[in-house]
Each structure stands twice: as structure tokens, then as C-alpha cells.
Amino acid sequence: MTATISVTDVEKTYRAVRALRGVSFDLQPGRLSALVGHNGAGKTTLIKLMLGLIRATSGAIRVLGEDPAAGEFAGRRQLGYLPENVAFNSGLTGRETLAFYARLKRIAPSSAWPLLDRVGLAHAADRKVGTYSKGMRQRLGLAQALLGRPRVLLLDEPTTGLDPALRQTFYDICDELRADGATVLISSHALTELEDRAEHVLIMNRGLLVAQGTMDELRHISRLPIRVTIDLAPNTDALPAWLGAAPQATARGSVVFARDDAEKMTLLREAAADPRVRNIEIAAPTLDDLYAHFLQSQEAAA
Description:
about 300 residues; alpha/beta; Rossmann fold; 6-stranded mixed sheet; 4-stranded antiparallel sheet; 9 helices; 13 strands; transport
């Protein structure tokens, strides 16, 4: 499968500041990727490079097969972008704002009206943007990014200011675009939201790409333990020997840690055969856990 976005050994410096250092990755069509990292990690710089707003100091970037910083980037109208802090002309209405961006993409403004309804702004379409709340401006920004059904969607903190219902609508829209073959990249601090949605995770720290892969791949690389909580019957006098040495005791049960899937499966087989076991819960390392682990490992190696 040909990558929609290809970043190869990219460096970006601002005088003495190395904003990006040897970053390489590919983004595939039909996949949602998460770009995570602290403020200043290089996430926004990467997005600006992919949009062609700035040029790399060295290395190569290809978006839809072209250099996005080239003067004639034919794929520009196939990109959707939502910045972290959206800013619109406060004197225009929501409908006029979308019409303006539709003309920039050379599409009929009337094709944008369904997006106003999709993001929950149909009732305020003819109000001036200056009267909008922050959440409403974020919705308008999302509608702007979705104009023309883009093949590449780059979103910087897209769910900031959205209520839970609209946040779910946002991810439903992302799923539709992915099913249509679009590449979706979300830069966000909302790791819990992304954990079950991202098929590919890029972890940045101080301009370096410290880890990338699927959640399963990152768990395997990190070798962080799997948390297994086993609830025993109330009348159990002693812990079963198969629990191993010194499991952690909690009000709900005993917690043991499996080093890998094979050890986890051994525990589950033992638990399933023991009539004293009332419940089993398994918690694999979360994206928060993985993020903290890879950042700590990189800092220790620096």
C-alpha cells in the first residue's frame, strides 16, 4: 500500500532550536493515526510541514506524492486542517465563513450546508461568528476542515470544547472518512479518547519520534506488565498457590502482573479451573502508560 504521507529523516531548526530531529514515518490511507507528546515536542511543527506552511531544514516530506512546500502543490485542495486555536472573521456568519473556505477549495458553497447540520450549527448558521462560544467556533472549524471530503485530514486538538455527544459525532465522521480511504492524523493530549480509536500511534518528545506503532506493537516493545485482578470467594482462607509469590491485595481481590500474553494465558487457565474464583479482570497497558514509559526511557537514555 502506497503511503499517503511519507516523512523521511526530517530536521527542522529555528536558529539554535532543533524543533525536529531525524523524524521518519509513513501514514497509510484508511487509517487513523494519533500524534502525541508534550507541548513543545514538535507536533505542530510536523503538521505545518505536512501542510507546506514551512519547509524542512533537511529531509524529505511527501503528501499525496508531492512536496507540500512546492509552489504548485496540486493536492492542497484535498487536505483538511483544523488548528488548535481556530480564528475566523467575527463579522461573518457561520454560513458565510464556510462559503469563503469552500470557494478557496473550488467547491460549490451549497455543498457545505449539510456540514453545518452535521456539527450541530444549523441553528446558528446565520449568526455572526463573533457571537459564537469557543465550542461553537471549534465546530465551525471542524466543518471547515471537512469541506470537499478530504483525502488527508490533519487535526490539532480537535475535540477541545466539544460536548460528549458532539465528540462522538466527530469520531463517527472520522470513521466514515477512513472507510472512504482518507488518512486521518489527530494531534491530541486526550490519550484516553484515542486509545481504542487510533490504529497507529506516534510518540514525540523534544523533537524526536521516540516510538511508533499499533497499540499491540507498542505494548510488545515496552514489555510493560499486564494487570490481572482475580476476585476470590469470601470464604477463601489462603491464596491459591498458582497466584504466585506475594500478589498485591486490594479490597476487590488479588492483583498479579503477567509479563506477556503467554504468562497471562497461564494465569487465566489456572483461574478458570479454580472454583474459588468469582471474577477476573484484565488491564493491558494503556496509552497513558505507554506514553509515560517511552518518554521516561528516552529521557534516561539522553
